[in-house]
C-alpha cells in the first residue's frame, strides 16, 4: 500500500484512512542492541560513502498527506541516522559484551584481577572505578605506585581481589633495577594462586602503541605456561580518536603485531576481541557509564589459574628477540 502511495501523484491517491495512519505512526522503530552477527552486518552495510536510499528532490513528490509528510521526514534523516548507528555500534558492544559463563553461577570463588602496564597509563584509576580505594589513582606525575596493593570488592555474587601493581618500565632513580623489581612483583602476584583475569593497560600516542608497551605484553605472555586469555584496555583517548580505536581494523592491526612477536605457543593466551577504549579522565575519575563499561569488559573474560616461569629471564629473551627482528 505504502509503495503505491510513494510512486503516485498526490491528486491520484485517496487520503489514507485514520486506521492506516495510526498503524504507520505506531510502528515499532526501536533499535535493539546488536548481537555479534548483527554488528558485523551493520558494519559491512553502513559506510560513509553510502548513497541516499531515496532523493525526493529529483523524483515525484509524496502525497500531501500526514503519512507522506512522515515518510519525507524519516527518509530525509535516513543516511544521517545510519551513520550515527554505525558509530554507536562499537559503544553498544562495550555495553553488550556477554559475561563469561564463569560468572553466571550464583556463587563464585574469589577472582583475582591483575592490571599490568607501564607507568602513567591509568591502572590505579581503573581499579578505583571498580570500587578500589587506591590513593594514587590520579596525578600529573606518573609512576606513583611503588609496591603491590590489594583490595577486595563485591558486585552481587561476584568477589574481585584487585591487584594494583607498579608500572613496569619505570624511569625512576632506580633505573633498570626497577624493571626487574616490578616484573618480580607481577610474577609473585600471579603465583599467589586462585583464578586470575589479566588485563594490559596501554596509552596510545598519536594512535601508536609504544614498543615498550609491546615489550611488557610479550614478557608477561611469553612467561605463561597456563593462564587466561588476556585483554587490552586503551586509555586517555581523545573523543575524535575513539571511533578509530574501536574499529575492527585498529584492533586487528594491534593484535597481529602482538602475535607476531610473542612465542607461537602463547598465541592461545591472546584474546582477539576488541579492546576497551576509555577517554581521558581527571581527578574525579571515570564517569558512571565508563565504570559500567569497565566492569562489563572484565566480566567477559574467563578467569583461570596461572602458571608462569621467570619473567626476568623472559625479558632478556624478549629484548634480544625484538632486537634481532628489528621491531624497535
UniProtKB/TrEMBL annotation:
<dbReference type="Pfam" id="PF01926">
    <property type="entry name" value="MMR_HSR1"/>
</dbReference>
<dbReference type="InterPro" id="IPR006073">
    <property type="entry name" value="GTP-bd"/>
</dbReference>
<feature type="domain" description="G">
    <location>
        <begin position="113"/>
        <end position="220"/>
    </location>
</feature>
<protein>
    <recommendedName>
        <fullName>G domain-containing protein</fullName>
    </recommendedName>
</protein>
<dbReference type="GO" id="GO:0005525">
    <property type="term" value="F:GTP binding"/>
</dbReference>
<dbReference type="InterPro" id="IPR027417">
    <property type="entry name" value="P-loop_NTPase"/>
</dbReference>
Amino acid at each position: 500500500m505504502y509503495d503505491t502511495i510513494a510512486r503516485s501523484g498526490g491528486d491520484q491517491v485517496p487520503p489514507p484512512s485514520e486506521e492506516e495512519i495510526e498503524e504507520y505512526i505506531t510502528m515499532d522503530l526501536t533499535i535493539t542492541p546488536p548481537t555479534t552477527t548483527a554488528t558485523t552486518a551493520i558494519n559491512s552495510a553502513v559506510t560513509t560513502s553510502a548513497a541516499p536510499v531515496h532523493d525526493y528532490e529529483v523524483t515525484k513528490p509524496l502525497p500531501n498527506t500526514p503519512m507522506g509528510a512522515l515518510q519525507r521526514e524519516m527518509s530525509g534523516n535516513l543516511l544521517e541516522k545510519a551513520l550515527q548507528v554505525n558509530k554507536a555500534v562499537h559503544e553498544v558492544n562495550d555495553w553488550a559484551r556477554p559475561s563469561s559463563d564463569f560468572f553466571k553461577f550464583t556463587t563464585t570463588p574469589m577472582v583475582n584481577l591483575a592490571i599490568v602496564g607501564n607507568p602513567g597509563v591509568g591502572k590505579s584509576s581503573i581499579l578505583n572505578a571498580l570500587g578500589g580505594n587506591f590513593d594514587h589513582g590520579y596525578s600529573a606525575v606518573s609512576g606513583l605506585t611503588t609496591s603491590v596493593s590489594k583490595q577486595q570488592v563485591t558486585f552481587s555474587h561476584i568477589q574481585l581481589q584487585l591487584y594494583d601493581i607498579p608500572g613496569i618500565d619505570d624511569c625512576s632513580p632506580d633505573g633498570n633495577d626497577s624493571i626487574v623489581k616490578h616484573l618480580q612483583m607481577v610474577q609473585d602476584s600471579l603465583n599467589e594462586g586462585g583464578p586470575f583475569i589479566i588485563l594490559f593497560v596501554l596509552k596510545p600516542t598519536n594512535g601508536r602503541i609504544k614498543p615498550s608497551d609491546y615489550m611488557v605484553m610479550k614478557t608477561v605472555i611469553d612467561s605463561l605456561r597456563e593462564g587466561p586469555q588476556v585483554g587490552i584496555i586503551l586509555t586517555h583517548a581523545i573523543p575524535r580518536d575513539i571511533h578509530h580505536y574501536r574499529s575492527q581494523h585498529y584492533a586487528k592491526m594491534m593484535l597481529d603485531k602482538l602475535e607476531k612477536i610473542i612465542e607461537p605457543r602463547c598465541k592461545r593466551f591472546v584474546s582477539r576481541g576488541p579492546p576497551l577504549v576509555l577517554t581521558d579522565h581527571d581527578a574525579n575519575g571515570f564517569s558512571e557509564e565508563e565504570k559500567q563499561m569497565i566492569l562489563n569488559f572484565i566480566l567477559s573474560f574467563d578467569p583461570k589459574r596461572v602458571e608462569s616461569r621467570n619473567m626476568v629471564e623472559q625479558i632478556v629473551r624478549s629484548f634480544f628477540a625484538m632486537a634481532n627482528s628489528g621491531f624497535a
